Automatic annotation (TrEMBL):
The lineage of its organism: Bacteria, Bacillati, Actinomycetota, Coriobacteriia, Coriobacteriales. Transmembrane segments: none annotated. Keywords: Iron, Iron-sulfur, Metal-binding, Pyridoxal phosphate, Transferase. Residues 7-364 form the Aminotransferase class V domain. This is cysteine desulfurase. It catalyses: (sulfur carrier)-H + L-cysteine = (sulfur carrier)-SH + L-alanine. The keyword Transcription regulation does not apply. Belongs to the class-V pyridoxal-phosphate-dependent aminotransferase family. NifS/IscS subfamily.
Length: 392
């Protein structure tokens, strides 16, 4: 077993950036540390100003014409997605009772797909939008489902398993043509690629994917969109989300966003080159490893997510073997109650279940060097060759 541990699961949660850690320390040393930003006294007002500064930074990093006032801080991507989908669907239906349908792509994160039940219990109809073998939602497939009863469409900016970037701008235009609102879960894409948000009504992001702290996220909703709150209490965040705000977390989130935004073009190109090289090495003829998505064009996938599958070896075996060798990765499948199940994303793409069960996701940013990725490739290729031979 290796004594060095190399973390390659940034898509699950990225290590904290120095800028985010420095922002937390600065907060702890500030006179207003611990003050409630909703209080009227001097320290409360100072905390509120700091929070508003973080809000401006997150809005600027999002782009797409979102204003600071559009940004609501949350506890993370899951809460942001819940608030967006439940809140917008109910808000639209309150304006027009006939709009009772919600369309979700079949490859969404569980924090979106698991809302199908709650939506139906609230009287909505929920339908899934299929994807192609390339892992992308076809705008024509969305068009076929749209009509004047649709309240909301939600399609992620980039998939958290395959890294495939979705045609969000065009999908939003199609939704708007039928009077529906459009939300995108940009938790994976935020600060990794420039986001096309000018047509989007709401976008969810999270701090810990970009090197900020766990437990902080944001939902940006345009002022014209009828968002119904889902948590009630003190009326914080302009009445959209009750609960005293985590000022320290918001400041660290903003610091991570500023750091990523400043180097986005260079880091994206660097990480994309490293990912392409890793794909070429792992998926060469005869390795027994395949890419999960049929399109590997750099501008159609997130840099830093390498999604592959080894049909002759299951994901659990690969993850544990790599862990023993000092490499931390994840799978596009989950182990539940001792039984391995295939990823809903890969199955929706038409990948056979036996192949999907061997999926692996390697994720990183510019802080992971070529030497680490090279040693990882050597190790994975050796494990797959050994395990495949043993099974034969």
């Amino acid at each position: 077993m290796s004594h060095t541990i190399e973390y390659l699961d940034y898509a699950a949660s990225a290590p904290m950036r120095p800028e985010a850690l420095a922002a937390e320390r600065a907060y702890e040393e500030a006179p207003y540390a611990g003050a409630n930003p909703n209080s009227l006294h001097t320290m409360g007002r100072a905390a509120a100003r700091a929070l508003d500064g973080a809000r401006r930074d997150v809005a600027r990093a999002l782009g797409g014409g979102f204003r600071p006032a559009d940004v609501t801080f949350t506890s993370g991507g899951t809460e942001s997605n819940n608030l967006a989908i439940l809140g917008l669907a109910e808000g639209v239906r309150a304006r027009s009772a006939r709009r009772r349908r919600v369309l979700l792509s079949a490859i969404e994160h569980d924090s979106v797909l698991d809302l199908a039940g709650p939506l139906r219990s609230r009287g909505f109809e929920v339908e899934l939008i299929g994807v192609g073998r390339d892992g992308a939602v076809d705008p024509d497939a969305l068009d076929a489902l749209l009509d004047d009863t649709c309240a909301l469409v939600s399609v992620m900016a980039a998939n958290n398993e395959t890294g495939v970037i979705q045609p969000v701008a065009e999908l939003a235009r199609r939704a708007h043509a039928h009077g529906a609102l459009f939300h995108t879960d940009a938790v994976q894409g935020f600060c990794r690629v420039p986001l096309e948000l000018a047509e989007v009504d709401a976008v969810s992001v999270a701090a810990h994917k970009i090197g900020g702290p766990v437990g902080v996220g944001a939902l940006a909703v345009r002022g014209r969109a009828p968002l119904r709150p889902q948590v009630f209490g003190g009326g914080q965040e302009q009445g959209r989300r009750a609960g005293t705000q985590d000022v320290r977390g918001a400041l660290a989130f903003a610091a991570a966003a500023r750091a990523c935004e400043a180097t986005l073009a260079d880091s994206r190109a660097l990480v994309a080159r490293r990912a392409s090289a890793l794909y070429e090495r792992l998926c060469a003829v005869g390795t027994g490893i395949l890419p999960t998505a049929s399109a590997l064009v750099d501008d159609r996938r997130l840099p830093g997510i390498v999604s592959v599958m080894a049909p002759a070896v299951d994901s659990e075996t690969l993850i544990l073997a790599l862990d023993q060798e000092g490499f931390e990765v994840s799978a596009a499948s989950a182990c539940s109650s001792g039984s391995l199940d295939a990823s809903h994303v890969l199955l929706a793409m038409g990948i056979p279940r036996d192949q999907a069960l061997g999926s692996l996701r390697v994720s990183f940013d510019e802080r992971v060097g070529e030497d680490v990725l090279g040693r990882f490739a050597d190790t994975l290729l050796r494990i797959v060759a050994e395990r495949s031979g043993a099974r034969r």
